[in-house]
Design brief:
Blueprint (H helix, E strand, L loop, with lengths): L1 H10 L1 H37 L6 H24 L2 H19 L1
Helix pairs in contact: 1-2, 2-3
Length: about 100
């Protein structure tokens, strides 16, 4: 791993800056997506659809559990073979298109 960074530094600091920028962008996007998913489940499903009132502590716990489970599911999908990911995208994509239409 250290030799990888040494090799990158030899290619130029601009390439390293671009690579680190891409990593930061990816991390920020994933973080925002996990927060949105937990907010949707908490606000829309639990409070509005099921009409449940949660304390701040319970709401925080629910959001942490949702974020953890979504992150775990994302990791499991990411380490799966490509064929499974393609099937997943096709199934979810067609379901999304049918809802829109």
């Amino acid at each position: 791993m250290i030799t990888l960074f040494k090799d990158l530094l030899d290619t130029g600091p601009l390439l390293v800056l671009i690579l680190l920028s891409l990593i930061a962008i990816t991390k920020s996007t994933v973080d925002s997506m996990l927060l949105v998913i937990s907010s949707i489940i908490n606000e829309d499903i639990l409070e509005k659809t099921l009409c449940t009132r949660l304390s701040e502590r319970t709401r925080s716990t629910v959001m942490k559990i949702v974020v953890f489970k979504c992150a775990l599911a994302s990791i499991l999908v990411a380490i799966a073979p490509e064929a499974h990911i393609i099937i997943l995208v096709i199934e979810i994509g067609f379901a999304g298109i049918s809802v829109i239409v």
